[in-house]
Amino acid sequence: MRKVVTAPASVLSRPAAEVDPADPEIVRLAEDLVAVMRASPGCVGLAAPQVGVSARVFCVDVTGHPKAATTHGTFVLCNATILEAGRWRPGREGCMSVPDLTGDVKRAARIVVEGLRPGTGEKITITTDAFEARAVQHEIDHCAGKLFLDRVAGAHAVYQRKIYL
Amino acid sequence: MHELAITVIGPDRTGIVADVSEALAAVGANLTDSTMTRLRGHFAMTLICTGPAEAEAVQALRRVGGVLATVRPVEPETGTAAAGEPYQLSVHGADRLGIVAAVARVVAAVGANITDLTTRLSGPLYVLVAEVDVPAGAGDELAERLAVAAAELDVDVTLRRAESEIL
């Protein structure tokens, strides 16, 4: 199982490279990302830089999450870009790569995103909203070398993450 | 390694943060957690530093003009903070004596812990915003008690869960 890297790690801070979705290495990376996501309690998305690989690949699965509306199950996208974004909403988010902090971040509650499916390289367009949209934006940010810390809403918008019993 | 609790306050001006933090860096003081903000024209800095002995930090801050500084050695944080459910508390209404005292007492009475608090007085309007760690399951009770206190103070109180989603 690949290990999740935490900030400060340079791989989290640099824009990741475009990938060839048909490359067997990328297909294996995609499978590994899903495996790490499933093995991590509460994890709803994971981007390649978070496992130390500077590549524009991420997976998301928000199935069953109380804040999700539209859901597309488990999916992996390569070289994803946001085509449309709207209905900006604040929300507090954390990240497996920044384990001790959370922050208030504005995200679009409705997005259209385009990317390539690993393996076939088929171009897919996903229209989504609410929590799935937030998760996708968070992962696309990872692929661009951005953390939620780069987007927090102000000097008082970073919080020590609470330890739940 | 010494751990120091430092407060610095002075009339706000361009460069006050640079001057204070440079003076501390020059004696090897490493800023860990800090909060710095402008309060009615005064710039207030509260910080925890590691590194130099108390006397060195005092000397360094003495060289920064026009600020009032205090330095005291503290013990490093031990263990983890009590776990609770995070809530955001907002209070606003006509300014009067004792709003913070009354609200904070209600929070303490249910065993909840204020982890961050800001107040602003803007003309006649008083605003309090706080982050509160509430013992599991005590949120409803706190909300009820706050409503009673708010009626007595004639202010509006909102307590809402500050849920964070780990992505």
Automatic annotation (TrEMBL), chain A:
Binds 1 Fe(2+) ion. CDD domains: Pep_deformylase. The active site is at E139. InterPro entries: Peptide_deformylase, Peptide_deformylase_sf. The keyword Hydrolase applies. It catalyses: N-terminal N-formyl-L-methionyl-[peptide] + H2O = N-terminal L-methionyl-[peptide] + formate. Its EC number is 3.5.1.88. GO terms for biological process: translation. Keywords: Hydrolase, Iron, Metal-binding, Protein biosynthesis. Its cofactor is Fe(2+). Fe cation binds at C95, H138, H142. Belongs to the polypeptide deformylase family. Removes the formyl group from the N-terminal Met of newly synthesized proteins. Requires at least a dipeptide for an efficient rate of reaction. N-terminal L-methionine is a prerequisite for activity but the enzyme has broad specificity at other positions. This is Peptide deformylase. It comes from Actinoplanes utahensis. The gene is def.
TrEMBL record, chain B:
It comes from the Bacteria. Residues 5-76, 88-164 form the ACT domain. This is Amino acid-binding protein. It holds the Pfam family ACT_6. SUPFAM superfamilies: ACT-like.
